[in-house]
Fold this protein.
Amino acid sequence: MWASYISCCAVPSAGTNSALAVADGYALRPAAPDDAPALLRFGELLLAESSYFLRAPGERARSVAEMRAIIDHFCAQPHYLLLSVWQGETTVGEAVVTAGEFQRNRFSATIGVGVLQAHSGRGLGAALMREMESFARGRRLRRLELTVMAPNARARALYERMGYVEEGLKRDSMFVDGGFVDEVMMAKILA
Ligand SMILES: CC(C)(COP(=O)(O)OP(=O)(O)OC[C@H]1O[C@@H](n2cnc3c(N)ncnc32)[C@H](O)[C@@H]1OP(=O)(O)O)[C@@H](O)C(=O)NCCC(=O)NCCS
């Protein structure tokens, strides 16, 4: 299991284990502000090729400056994590953890994950899930939760394999490609 990150924005340096090998040719590390151009391109591609996200194309960052502001925001929050998978200079996967900001929900966090189609099926999604959990355990979070669109069999199978349990159904909560879609609520308690 990989080391947990001390800081969301810790930029790896040569010879440290901050950037961790995931699979052949891939490395995983928290995003840093200077990654904004690569993360902007990644986000545009990811949203263009998948309808399974809340955001449609154009609803993430619309400029490098906006993307940098998002990364800055994640870096400023000790219980937020924005994790990227890299193949060389290209971002090919991402995971986010956002813990509650109030006293009563601060041990509960929402997670999200995405991997570009061309790089899927190589264990990157599972690696991101494991690293999010490691981050959460390091911060003594109790609960990780997510929603997944009901037809997204691949993601649901991944979450179940990682120990997430279905807790309910949000009927017709999304409007995608002209039709309403249910979302499944899933969560994992970190005992
Ligand atoms: C879902 C997603 C994160 C998975 O990432 P990934 O890197 O492909 O995941 P992994 O390679 O670690 O694991 C994929 C698993 O799904 C399995 N799988 C592949 N296609 C499947 C399908 N149609 N139904 C069920 N399982 C499937 C694979 O066999 C693999 O399982 P295994 O490791 O036991 O063999 C990625 O495909 C993705 O980003 N999809 C588009 C966006 C998305 O759906 N995000 C989640 C929104 S809630």
In short: The chain has a mean pLDDT of 90. Residues 80 and 98 are 5 Å apart (CA to CA).
